[in-house]
Design goal:
Layout (H helix, E strand, L loop, with lengths): L1 H51 L7 H30 L1 H8 L1
Length: 99
């Protein structure tokens, strides 16, 4: 009886540790998504302002490339964050996929 109780405590400890790990991971990816979104917005603003400057058109492809890349990174980080939150809320599926 004592052995079964000890195994349950270890299982609960593992679930709690996994829950906290996935929560931290989701927070990290959420922060990265916000930073990438800000970079995308700044570069899209640079694209718009480069049209008004005489030599700014030469920088247009670089700003556009950075803006699109940052936007794709933000979407990827957001999807990864959602996946981490999903697995955090459904720990049994996490255990099935990991094992």
């Amino acid at each position: 009886m004592h052995r079964v109780q000890n195994m349950n405590e270890r299982g609960d400890s593992r679930h709690q540790q996994l829950y906290l790990s996935l929560t931290r991971r989701a927070g990290l990816y959420g922060g990265l998504a916000i930073i990438a979104s800000i970079i995308a917005v700044v570069n899209f603003a640079a694209v718009i302002t480069s049209v008004w400057r005489p030599m700014g058109v030469l920088n247009l492809p670089v700003h556009l490339l950075f803006a699109v890349t940052a936007l794709l990174a933000a979407l990827s980080f957001r999807r990864t964050r959602q996946r981490a939150l999903y697995y955090r809320d459904h720990l049994s599926e996490w255990d099935d996929d990991a094992g």
